[in-house]
Amino acid sequence: MPVHGEIWTVKELFVLPNEYIYWAIQIVMYPFMTGLVAGAFVLSSLYHVFGVKQLREIARFALVFSMALLPVAMMPLMLHLLQPFRGIKVLMTPHFTSAIAAFGIVFLTYGSIVASEIWFVYRKHLVETVLALRKKADRTAGEGMRLAIFSVLTLGAYDISEEAIKKDHRAVSILAGIGIPVACFLHGYAGFIFGSVKANALWMTPLMPVIFIMSAVVSGIALSLLVYIVTMEIRKFNAKRKRRGRMSGPTPEQIKGVEVAEVRITTKYLLLFMVFAISLELLDLIFRGYTAVKSWDILRQVIYGKDFANIFVFQYGMGNLLPFILLLLPGITVRRTVLITLLVLLGVFMMRWNVVIGGQAFSLTLSGFMHYHMPIIPHDLETFKEGLGGVLTVAVTPFIIFWVLNKVFPVFQEEAR
């Protein structure tokens, strides 16, 4: 039976016999997905906490999307573990001196905050739906099932008076305020895990948690904005079909107006957080070169040689510099925003790749290298989980969850009515 990591590791020069790239693509996906969760929540909190009224529409969208991303945050770890059924122990047996157990505590806390916030945001919608369905005498089987589900979700709180709604809004603001540091800690924990590994020269830096947090906010805003644009384009297409059929609803022009307004204000915040993220990454790179510790010689060969294209072309060039320039150009458009968000997501993903895979690229002998080849066509369960199949599974799942959640918690006001 081959050793875990032997299948996708290619060695070069002087490498120890028991050295392989053990942390593969799923450990790249893990901090990437948790970052998307935190970033989407921060975007929604810009409205709920800081009162940025221009982000009202996309804030609801980002909040529900954050909830859809949350269950997927643990999927990469579960796919990576050889004994995934033991993973539940992290959540069920808290341990306050273990870093991985701390993740379980923060994960449950953050999930509770997001679920509670969604309930307060949509409580009026749930109650109105229940009352409307109860008035219908000839309910279908689907409507009866919907009535049962929504009745449970109301938790027996049917007061939708003006005073009760104000209390709901106050509760949302408090929960969002508490949720911001918890969301940052949820993702900063991943940076803490890497930054505290003293045996790895590329990971050992106190800036790692902060870099992870800022890049997480950038990636979460970018993905939320991208999915929002795609959803709005679908709504415009459906609105055109309804207009031909003379059905009621928002017109394509109204939907386009809201979309353009949300895109313009959200890209400004994306640019702001990109400035912080890029500055921290460059500061870390300059700091490593200036201090030039014992391992700098091998690190320099990895950064400026073996992984030059991954770091300076894909991460800094296409993922940071190019979208930054596109954001600075006047007259932002929806099409340009789509390109910007895709490039930003590429840059953040490559940052995670270069940290996880690049951090394992050099041998502990400091005289050899290892190269990672991700399995594309699986020939067993292991190569499926740690290959392209596992990546696609993790990438597609949040959109399926989001589609289901949108049936219960509609992200657009018109659909809620």
Quick one: how many beta strands? 2
Order of helices and strands: EHHHHHHHHHHHHEHHH
Termini separation comes to 59 Å
Largest sheet: 2 strands, antiparallel
Which of globular, elongated, flat, extended, rod-shaped describes the shape? globular
What number is the mean pLDDT?
A: 86
Rg over CA atoms: 23 Å
Low-confidence parts lasting 5 or more residues at pLDDT below 50? none
Strand content bin: under 5%
Structure description:
With 417 residues, the chain is mainly α. The chain is 71% helix and 2% strand. It has 15 helices and 2 strands. A two-stranded antiparallel sheet has the order 1-2. It is globular, with a radius of gyration of 23 Å. The termini are far apart.
Question: What structural keywords apply?
Answer:
two-stranded antiparallel ribbon, mainly alpha, 417 residues, 71% helix, single chain
Outline:
With 417 residues, the chain is mainly α. The chain has helices at residues 25-48, 56-69, 75-80, 88-92, 99-135, 141-153, 162-195, 208-244, 252-291, 296-306, 308-328, 334-356, 381-385, 388-408, 413-416, and strands at residues 9-13, 368-372. Helix content is 71%, strand content 2%.
Question: How are the SSEs placed, and which strands pair?
Answer:
Blueprint lengths: L8 E5 L11 H24 L7 H14 L5 H6 L7 H5 L6 H37 L5 H13 L8 H34 L12 H37 L7 H40 L4 H11 L1 H21 L5 H23 L11 E5 L8 H5 L2 H21 L4 H4 L1
Helix pairs in contact: 1-2, 1-7, 1-8, 1-12, 2-5, 2-8, 2-14, 5-6, 5-7, 7-8, 8-9, 8-12, 9-11, 10-11, 11-12
